[in-house]
Amino acid sequence: xxxxxxxxxxxxxxxxxxxxxxxxxxxxxxxxxxxxxxxxxxxxxxxxxxxxxxxxxxxxxxxxxxxxxxxxxxxxxxxxxxxxxxxxxxxxxxxxxxxxxxxxxxxxxxxxxxxxxxxxxxxxxxxxxxxxxxxxxxxxxxxxxxxxxxxxxxxxxxxxxxxxxxxxxxxxxxxxxxxxxxxxxxxxxxxxxxxxxxxxxxxxxxxxxxxxxxxxxxxxxxxxxxxxxxxxxxxxxxxxxxxxxxxxxxxxxxxxxxxxxxxxxxxxxxxxxxxxxxxxxxxxxxxxxxxxxxxxxxxxxxxxxxxxxxxxxxxxxxxxx
Length: 321
Prior knowledge:
Number of domains: 2
Radius of gyration: 20 Å
Largest sheet: 4 strands, antiparallel
Region (Disordered): 278-303
Organism: Malassezia obtusa
Oligomer: single chain
GO molecular function, one term: MAP kinase activity
Enzyme class: transferase
Number of strands: 9
Keywords: ATP-binding, Kinase, Nucleotide-binding, Nucleus, Serine/threonine-protein kinase, Transferase
């Protein structure tokens, strides 16, 4: 739950994010993860924590209150209520990628990039938020199925490799999400609004076409390959036809973001250097982030899941340190 308030120490209006995580172990893990990550990153395009309200005691600790910068709206609302120009598209996509570069440089996958997780103010400044699903890019889980357990409401922006094989995921998943968001800006509606797993894949293949043999055999799951083989052949659609009013350079960047194969998909550094973003691209003003402490994701990688009480204690210690 989010509400606005006045932060008395600074006399400024702020957002107060109230979280009640202690009913479920997974919510506790997400909350601990988000607090640690937001404290680590200090970047213009990543939402920051200004303060955290300290609980009176561990015993009476029932809610987390994060004090954050106040942003007027989010990309989801803007896409549905505003007529955006090419200048808007460039500036928004540039800022998403600039923030994402910081995350990826620290070895962090956001994993939940979508329009509602991109906050905006009246100056069109953009900040990435909601790090509850973020994970280390350098420590794949031994049980790949666990990677998908938290994926519930973000199917429309989910990279195909996440659905097709559980055990391999890279920073490329976030670039796919950026492509989906960019396409939604251009058309005003989601590009792949799948009803379920199968419909989602079908929509992707209807646009990108049936995978090439190289891409097909790069899918490690035999079951996934069998499923794709069972589908009718699809011819790739022309992006210039799908987005007739888009700048040709925007189309080129979009095609590179929405590559079916994660190995062929553009990286965040390559995307920032793409000619479409030339008006904003400045390598000297696109900083990397400090590397993460290896213990950041200990709660995720523990062989035995931590209990709610153990996680509550860790959250309490994180807030009061």
